[in-house]
Amino acid sequence: MKLLRRGDSDNPDKNHVEVTESSASSSETTAETAGKTASTPGKGRPTPKRREAEAKRRGPVTPAPLTAKEARARRKATRGSKEERKTAAAERRADAADRRARMLAGEDKYLMPRDKGPVRAYVRDLVDSRRNLVGLFMPLALILIMAMFLNPIIQSYVTLGMLVMMLFMAIEGYVLGRMINNRVRERFPDTADGGFKLGWYAFVRASQIRKMRAPKPRVGPGDAV
Questions:
Q1: pLDDT tens across 8-40, in order?
Q2: Is 0.85 surpassed by the pTM of this model?
Q3: Are 124 and 193 within one domain?
Q4: What is the DSSP string of 159-202?
Q5: Fewer beta carbons under 10 A from the terminal one: N or C of the chain?
């Protein structure tokens, strides 16, 4: 409440006017505040979930077919004409053949993860430049399978020979792994690739027939690496 000054006690009309103006100013301020509050109403609805918003952006979903005939008709309509399918199949075959050719050529981009990197390429070259006894593993395994249909005495000799051969292969695999790891440490002293994993990689490569190795050998037997 506004106090009246002593000098205005003789003029009650003036005091009444000041009180009235103060009340009017307060009413106008309250009205403006209420107007601002009324002008910014809430959304009036909950915020939609992310899944609902994405579904709304994608649009309506095509209902599932009710019959097998309808499903076949829908597949036929979406897969295009016969010529388009032939062209797409030919393009896929050509792309697959190109990727395989690049992989066999040793391009790092198209190799499997186990074959990527200069260390693995160097190991492949070391193995391919040697004549390994373990390379006879697959032919000898085929001979053992064929010997199962021969005379029991011949089977026993073949089995004994295979056991001796496998013993020599295991020894050669151990020596090959040690040699590969030593050469890799000399050529790539900062590499973390090594140990049993690298030795096993070299052994598996050496046990394959040369013409069936992938990537294809880049060096011949006896070549310097």
A1: 444 444 444 444 444 444 444 444 444 444 444
A2: no
A3: yes
A4: HHHHHHHHHHHHHHHHHHHHHHHHHHHHH-TT----THHHHHHH
A5: N
